[in-house]
Amino acid sequence: MRMFILMTCINTEEEKEKLKKIYLKYKKLMFKIAFDILQDFHWAEEAVEEAGMKIIDNLDKFSDIDSTNSKNLAAAIVKNTAKNMAKHRNKFEAVDLESKENNLEDNKFLPEIFLLSRENVKQIVECISQLDEKYGKILWMKYIDNIDDREICKTLDISPENFRVRLCRGKKILNGKLKNRNLLK
Question: What is the CATH number of domain 2-91?
Answer without folding.
Answer: 1.10.1740
